Amino acid sequence: MAQAALKFGGISPGTSDKASPSISNTGRILLHFSFKPANDNSSGDLDKLFEILHEDADLLIINKPADLVCHPTKGDVYSSLISRVRLHLGPDAQPRLINRLDRETSGVTVVAKNPASAGELGTLWAARLVEKEYLAIVRGHPVETNGWIEAALGKDLRSAVAIKDGVRADGLPARTEFRVERKFVRTTHPRTAVPPPHASPETAGTPGQSFSLLRVIPHTGRKHQIRIHLAYRGHPIVGDKLYGGDESFYLALVERRLTPEQRERLLLPHQALHARVVRFAWRGRTWEFGCEPEPWFRDFLNGPPTSPEPARGR
Fold first, then answer.
1. How far is 277 from 64, CA to CA, in rounded Å?
2. Residues contacting 41, CB < 8 A, separation 6+
3. Looking at 45, 58, 92, 102, which residue is catalytic?
4. What's the distance, Cα to Cα, between the start and end of the chain in Å?
5. Residue 218's beta-bridge partner residues?
6. Is 92 a catalytic residue?
7. Looking at residue 45, which CATH number applies to its domain?
8. How many structural domains compose the chain?
């Protein structure tokens, strides 16, 4: 697998540096990563742009950071991923983002460096010939250890947020597979235990709140699919400002007026959704790219144990 020390529930610290490729007997491309501390800025200005997982004449594979939009905004040249890609490749480059992650979702992002590779890879994505795996930390403990969520998605006409979708009988078909990798409890500030308006009782929690780490595989590619489906099942992603139960958090985010109290209730600075692996067959080989979540995700997952255990008699 094109990753190093990626383990559910025990994710190693550090970020991936350069990958050294090798080819197996089956023609499968394996990318082996070395790791460096997250605060190591020895590679200079490149660290200000993004972390590169792999690069060749046709492909640029990036570990997109959370809180970075994929397409240009009114900000500077660093304000979007594609703008940073153009800085990296130069003014004559014609890059195309093959997969696009939400602003607050981190992880593997595939960039085609020329029109030929963009066309070929776009065809693979359109035909759903790509395997994608995500990690998500959700509120609560799902009853099933694994399962499927099948619920059609479309525009949420009741929402004040124009980009918000939801489950609709007349929507487009959407299927999400999930597996519970770990269940845990975290002791949180009492204020954070209060559920947002409209949250399901299952997610209400107590000062020792329950959470789960899920491996999620989307089998369709609808907008916000994973986030909507998990919230629909009563297990919203931790830190999700739009689908976590109170969309006013999202409005506060885009208007840059999130209060300390709101941030505290969200528990995490960004939604805990990470594109962990992308896998596809292309030009006679199988390509697989993977990367770790960011430190804040790992720290919450592997942080101090849970509510104190009852004392045992001697």
1. 13
2. 47
3. 102
4. 48
5. 176
6. no
7. 3.30.2350.10
8. 1
